[in-house]
Design a protein that fits this description.
5 strands; Rossmann fold; phosphoprotein; PTS_EIIB-like_sf; five-stranded mixed β-sheet; 41% helix; PTS_EIIB_2
Amino acid sequence: MNVVAVTSCPSGVAHTYMAAESIERAFKDAGHNIKVETQGSIGIENRISQEEIKKADYVILTKDIAIKDEERFQGKTIVRVSVADAIKKADAIVKKLEQHYASNKK
């Protein structure tokens, strides 16, 4: 499964990066490809390319604050999660997307 994600929080500091790290670790540990872009207080880091978006099965966006340039994900399956869930429930997010992916491949 190929996934891209964008994390951002209202203050744009610690939680943005904690969410990115948690999501990335959970998907990689489960054997999936993932790239995480952060939109923090210092701007956009690790920007997701159009090619990566094209290959993505899912786009995960945190919903605590508006994501910059969100229109680039139009037409993709978007999953919105809170920053807190991205940090605390990343493994559950992986399992839910795996189930959805498997059911769509039948």
